[in-house]
Design brief:
By secondary structure, this protein is of the alpha+beta class. The chain has one domain: Trna Endonuclease, Chain: A, domain 1 (3-Layer(aba) Sandwich). The chain has 2 helices and 10 strands, in the order ββββαβββββαβ. The protein is globular.
Length: 139
């Protein structure tokens, strides 16, 4: 039976049939303190984002907004080369103003850890390339 077992290379380079005992692997803590959740088949990265979605869903059902988009993604280009993308939380048409609104849910603290330098750069790039202004919402 031992000849049917897979061979294992241990940490010292020895080949054997015994599984070597290794140190426990530490898992990294989440980058931000937000706890994500699935709702209606969509992954929301934070409870605040989920609350905002529920509010927007009620507004859409009431007729105040339409065309609710969840996690719209926009490609970012420079000189014809794709640099990356920015993924927002929501977009919708506001019937009161007649304008498209693009939202990103952020922590209400001014210097929140989610307002990274790369987010700020993507926000400026999106405005310059597509003319889209991101509205930061704290739900």
């Amino acid at each position: 039976m031992r000849h049917l077992m897979a061979r294992v290379v241990g940490p010292n380079g020895r080949v054997g049939h015994e599984v070597p005992v290794t140190a426990k692997v530490k898992t990294k803590a989440p980058r931000y303190t937000a706890k994500g959740q699935w709702f209606d088949g969509v992954w929301f990265g934070s409870q605040a984002e989920l609350r905002r979605f529920k509010d927007l869903k009620l507004m859409q059902d009431g007729g105040a907004i339409s065309g609710l988009g969840i996690h719209p993604r926009y490609d970012l280009y420079a000189c014809g080369v794709k640099l990356g993308y920015v993924e927002l939380d929501f977009e919708y048409l506001d019937h009161a103003t007649g304008k498209m609104i693009y939202e990103d849910v952020k922590d209400p603290k001014k210097n929140s850890s989610t307002r990274t330098a790369i987010f700020k750069w993507k926000r400026r790039h999106l405005r310059a390339e597509h003319g889209i202004e991101i509205t930061e919402v704290s739900a």
